[in-house]
Design goal:
Layout (H helix, E strand, L loop, with lengths): L2 E6 L9 H9 L2 E8 L11 H21 L4 E4 L2 H12 L3 E5 L4 H17 L2 E5 L21 H10 L42 H12 L6 H4 L12 H6 L4 H13 L3 H26 L21 H9 L5 H13 L4 H14 L4 H11 L5 H12 L14 H8 L4 H6 L30 H18 L7
Parallel strand pairs: 1-2, 1-4, 2-3, 4-5
Helix pairs in contact: 5-10, 9-10, 10-15, 12-13, 13-15, 14-15
The structure holds flavin-adenine dinucleotide.
Length: 470
């Protein structure tokens, strides 16, 4: 084949990129393309942090492609229209891309499939975003899994694709027009936070740093937000600056030369990668989770329409130190530790009774790693409405969570400087008076709100004719 287009979307790397690899193998010349979206100022599912990371990744991708002899082509607009224009301009014979799994990508690809026939070109799509295809891991009766543990067991038993060889060379036709690499100004946005370094090289450095040490303490410390024991790779898996195959293969290599305790830690890390795939297959099979509870019987659950409470949560001013620390970490860095994501999400849904969709959207607008499958999964898990969710009566108590996971108050004090001089023990129980000047009293009584939540769940289940006793 003479010419093909590789359309980059959430696969912003040159190594182990399935569609790019095949495009380079099949075509003499490849046009590596990224299409920038044209919304301005506000988007319900993204925000400055994620877009800033994207811009940095595109900059790094352009340099990496240049080293292979190619050139990243940037266009801006509606994807189908831009693709049609470019296909005609360069007389491409094929369009290569890696498949998306969310309902928006699925709809777009099905439109493109039809258009490609009209344009008379080949449309080749590849599995790349997950190790296992969302429809490759099914129950014995061919149904999608709704519960994690049997899914993970089945996931392990399906053969996995290997990491691909490096691409040697990529030739892009010289005369193809490109727009400049985007900056935040393209969407009328301003930088908001101090985010991690974008790009494939930075992602590999993060992976190496994690594999060189912290991974062996993962089992023991992964729930401690002050411990820096997690990989911090979520934005790289979100934007494809690393492939999930590369991360998995690197972890499995370590397994082979580790002792039993180390293997347990590495195994736990791999388990988290499988959670990511679990939520992706949930979204693939049940795209309606973006609009409604995964659990059918909770439709009558009461939520509070409380904008003032939501605002205090979004500002990190609830008077619950661990919750406020989490939100302030998010606002400052575009990231929040997993344990604290759970605590803050449960607090919003079960202490403030605000609908999970409000928190889900706020997270997506702030997180650099904002991933609609994992984010929806995490929110519905915390709210008690999701796939394999926390039982509704198991409600995390922010005070005891602090005692378990931030016993010295290091994480809290790092993000809530007003509390720097407070004794750690005072961060683990409801205070009788202000903990510090300028720091609010707890906005609710956790025990009372807990009872209210349990009552609301029981009522919803009764209404659904599905009442269960505790
Ligand atoms: C309410 C809520 C919202 C979340 N939103 C997102 C999101 O938008 N994007 C996102 O990538 N993750 C999300 N998560 C999952 C998890 O919090 C992050 O993946 C993790 O904190 C990222 O840090 P890490 O890379 O250091 O993780 P590690 O602990 O090092 O885990 C390794 C990788 O496994 C995956 N992973 C880990 N935990 C989970 C999980 N519970 N569910 C799915 N995948 C997981 C991630 O890709 C992560 O990079 C959410 C969790 C909750 C409770």
């Amino acid at each position: 084949m003479k010419r093909a287009i590789h359309w980059f979307r959430r696969d912003l790397r040159i190594s182990d990129n399935t569609a790019l690899y095949h495009a380079c193998k099949d075509a003499e010349e490849v046009v590596p393309l990224f299409i920038v979206s044209t919304w301005k100022g506000h988007h319900p599912w993204t925000g400055p942090n994620r877009q800033q990371f994207l811009c940095g990744c595109l900059d790094s991708l352009a340099k990496n492609l240049a080293q292979l002899g190619g050139r990243l082509i940037i266009r801006a607009g509606e994807p189908c229209a831009e693709l049609e224009r470019l296909i005609k301009e360069v007389s491409a014979e094929a369009l290569y891309t890696n498949r998306g799994i969310d309902p928006f990508d699925v709809a777009l690809e099905s439109r493109l499939e039809k258009s490609a026939r009209d344009w008379g070109i080949e449309f080749r799509r590849f599995l790349d975003v997950t190790v296992q295809a969302p429809d490759a891991v099914l129950t014995q009766s061919g149904q999608p899994f709704r519960v994690f543990t049997p899914y993970a067991r089945a996931w392990q038993s399906v053969p996995r694709p290997a990491v691909l060889p490096k691409i040697g060379r990529l030739r892009t036709p010289a005369d193809v027009r490109t727009e400049p690499l985007p900056t935040l100004a393209h969407w009328n946005l301003q930088p908001e936070a101090s985010i991690v370094e974008p790009g494939e090289k930075a992602a590999r450095t993060r992976l190496k740093r994690f594999l060189d040490g912290p991974i062996f303490g993962y089992a023991e410390k992964r729930n401690l937000p002050a411990a820096a024991a997690n990989s911090r790779l979520s934005q790289d898996l979100r934007w494809g600056t690393l492939s999930p195959r590369q991360v998995l293969a690197a972890a499995e290599n370590l397994m082979r030369c580790s002792d039993a305790a180390q293997r347990r830690s590495v195994g736990m890390f791999i388990n988290e990668l499988v959670w990511r795939e679990f939520y992706m297959q949930i979204l693939w099979h049940y795209p309606e989770v973006l609009h409604r509870d995964f659990v059918d019987s909770l439709g009558a659950l009461d939520w509070n329409d409380d904008e003032a409470a939501l605002r205090r949560w979004c500002e990190g001013a609830t008077g619950f130190p661990i919750v406020d620390a989490g939100i302030r970490e998010l606002l400052a860095t575009g990231f929040m530790h997993n344990r604290v994501r759970m605590i803050t999400a449960m607090f919003l849904t079960k202490d403030l009774h605000v609908h999970w969709k409000r928190g889900e959207q706020f997270f997506c607008q702030k997180l650099v790693d904002g991933e609609i499958a994992s984010n929806n999964g995490g929110w519905q898990w915390s709210a008690g409405t999701g796939a394999d969710a926390a039982p509704y009566f198991r409600i995390q108590n922010p005070w005891t969570q602090t005692k378990r996971y931030d016993p010295d108050g290091i994480y809290i004090k790092g993000w809530v400087p007003e509390l720097r001089d407070v004794k750690p023990a005072d961060l683990m129980r409801p205070p009788e008076s202000h903990l510090a000047k300028n720091y609010p009293l707890p906005m609710v009584d956790h025990n009372r709100e807990r009872e209210l939540t349990v009552e609301r769940f029981q009522r919803a289940q009764q209404i659904a004719g599905n009442g269960r006793s505790l």
